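Notes taken during the Thursday session

The instructor put the following on the board and asked us to keep it in front of us for the whole hour. The protein is Ferric reductase-like transmembrane domain-containing protein. We were told not to look anything up and to reason only from what is written here. First, the residues (437 in total):
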Amino acid sequence: MAGLTMLIVTALWVHNGGAQQLTGGGADALSAIGRLTGLWASDLLLLQVLLMARIPLVERAFGQDRLARWHRWTGFTSFWLMIAHVVLITLGYAGAAHANAFAELWDMVWTYPGMLLATAGTLALVMVVVTSIRAARRKLRYESWHLLHLYAYAGVGLALPHQLWTGTDFIGSTTATVYWWTLYAMSAGAVIAYRIGLPVWRNLRHRLVVERVAWEGPGLTSVYLTGRRLDRLPVRAGQFFHWRFLDGPGWSRAHPYSLSAMPHGRGLRITVKDLGDGSSRVATLRSGTKALIEGPYGKLTGETYTGGPVTLLACGIGITPLLALLGELPYAPGQATLIYRARNEAELAFREELEWFAARRGVRVIFLLGQRAARPSWLPARYADRTDADALRQLVPGISGSQVYVCGPEAWAEAARTAARDAGVRPENLHTELFAW
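Then, after some discussion, the predicted structure tokens were revealed:
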């Protein structure tokens, strides 16, 4: 998709004289390349918006963790292309006018139509990109990162007048104008429809409220919710919503929590680990507190499972969607294995429910306890003498013929996914959900 749109944009640039300008050399060549990098940056920036517009068909096809990776890639790529556009256009214009580059940049910002807005949009995007670097994200609370990330929409919106008023490649031909207006309309329409309209409609229809809150273990709290027409809510076990609880200041910041029990028409359950300000407040919620949702999201579902051997690999809070899947998947007694990784006994949650699944539905439950291995691994240190794949084969004989579901922290889930592939699990039988942002 990205490659095709980039080819279209390049073709439009050639049609509007870009290649001819490039052959002129010197300042003209710099301006021509600057035009092209600006077009590529705009194209990828709009695709980035579409990727995270929460379009249900796209979410079901690819899953949000894969879309988030593509969103991240297109985001950083469009940013560096945008920087190249600014530098090359400035140098090209300065060369043509025989002016100082800094003076030319100042003149462009203050005198060209729409450039002040474009500058503000660029600064907003710089802030978003800087706070998206992994080192910066580790120092930010999720709530702060999420709030800052919303400025990307301001960056995209503020750049539009600049392209309309001064962008030759935007208005240079009817084809170019139709293409860019269509892409902008699709992006804006998708955000309005699926980030705003659909959540508003679902909340008005289902009117979720907290029924009760239950302690599940150290730092773990379950929230039971009721509402109207929940049998009409299109959600499956393994999926998650973005939640807002109307319990006071800070309610506007959404947090992603998976369902921890199979959804049914009478209610929903989520389980939250105390990892920050927003999650710690969950334990203090009172009965009757209203909840707002966005979703459901995620592809860690039993959509393609019709029976046979199934293995679920969970680490920490990653147990929650897999517990919901245990309730929904149509496996026979003895066909399901759950491997649950935790540092110690105290961190294991839902012991009674897991014992029920073992006794009533024949689930084989394996607890992997202990400190992490010294090497990157999904195993505890006591398995250090074995490879990740060999240990998985030993724990689950016949793993290669199993449907495998993996959920946990990013590094652990990647190690578990690699082990499953090395153990012979086919890619179409490997389903994952990463807990990362």
